[in-house]
Design brief:
This protein has helices at 2-9, 14-37, 40-49, 54-67, 74-81, 84-99, 101-111, 118-150, 156-188, 195-211, 213-218, 233-242, 244-261, 264-275, 279-307, 309-321, 323-329, 338-344, 348-362, 369-399, 404-427, 437-448. Helix 4 packs antiparallel against helix 20 (369-399). The chain has a single domain, classed as Growth Hormone, Chain: A (Up-down Bundle). The two termini are 38 Å apart. Residues 1-10, 225-231 and 437-445 have low confidence and may be disordered. It is mainly alpha-helical and 449 residues long.
Length: 449
Amino acid sequence: MNELRRKSEARLPAAAIRRAMRFANANAGLWAVGNGLVSTQLVIYLANDLGAAGLWVGLILAAPRFAGLMRLGVPALIAGLRRRKAVCIGAYIASAAVLSGVPLVAITLATGGPNVSTTTAFALLVTAWCVYHLLEYVGTVALWSWLGDLTPRRIRGRLLGARERWLLIGRIVGMAGSISVAWTWAQLVPNAPQWQPLALSAAAGAAMMLAAVAPLAAMAPASGAPSALPHAPWRSLVSALADPPYRRLLLASCWIAVVSGVTQSAQEIYPRRVIGLAYGGRLALQGLLRAGQSAIAPWMGRMANHFGNRPVMIVSQLVAATGMLFFIAATPERWWLLAGAFIVWIFYAGLNVGLDNVKLKLAPADNNAPYLAVYHTVSDLASGAAILFGSTLFDRLSAGGADALWLYAQLFFWGWVGRTLSVVFLARLIEPGARRLSEIVAGELDHEG
């Protein structure tokens, strides 16, 4: 196995790897601009402006995660075609095409399209949003398997940290563009309903995601890499679940997904309905978050390479968990305290880089696609179930006549507790090649001496 890994890592020269990563970063930047133009927050605000009930908001958040179950078939698709590049590009083109249906459904809802009920139209909106994510998931699993073969393990953390920065910068640019579209539209058409610039932003986002496919076409295919071979993909899915180190990673990922998902709907509804935060303000906070993460993501990658992923993820999670406490403190009179949550959430960059690195380190180099598919699918199913449970719980508690601020405070407090307890699962991760704490301290002392 070690010999096979060394061969796969030496397949491309250093110059070719750098060139491939430049194209990968260009893809990340363009895709992220599109993602910023048509973010989840935009779709939620769009649905609210068109009269969606709370259940539809929960489905917008949760349905794409359940669609991720289909990613379990990606390894078989890759093995059958033996070309991850073709799978990746085809899936991303199809996802952009489906995403263009979101503004079309919005127009149908607003104009009372031909014999289409409101329920049917919202169902179509959720379906388009769901299928878009499904196709994007297919492309993402293929892309991560592809990147896993292109990037040597010894420098993977630094390379993925740089790519994370491109993703974050692109999202910031996209969100700024979405705010600009809304502001410009309001100046040109003062009495226009708010859904119109949101639908226009969604259409522009779909176009940018389609443009992001071009850099992938120029990337090295790594078609001979061992993870593209047909190694009984469905049997490998079971192997991923049976592998003790990978099972610990799945347990940690699921716990984090559940404790985050339970409060997800409340986090999205609270700024809008209780604090009264406008769409532009919500995106501004999201931009603050992305800007901070783009600044520290490469540094987090270097820290992960030096100290290991576990300590970086543990510290990041402890800091980011305190975001729930800022939600508790924020009120309509102290709305600005919400910014504190988005500032501490900047540290999720360390968790994102660490989990991306560990999931590749624990997956076998000769057949990593099934492991990656299992990781993303199990995590998303846990998150989707938690979001629906949290939405249902919130609706039932609200129906009981509870004070709104008290109810939100209870949900956010237990959200902080659950997020903090995540470090227990992160500490139990098995990380190949990671140094012990005593070795790190001894090395630092020797360096100072």
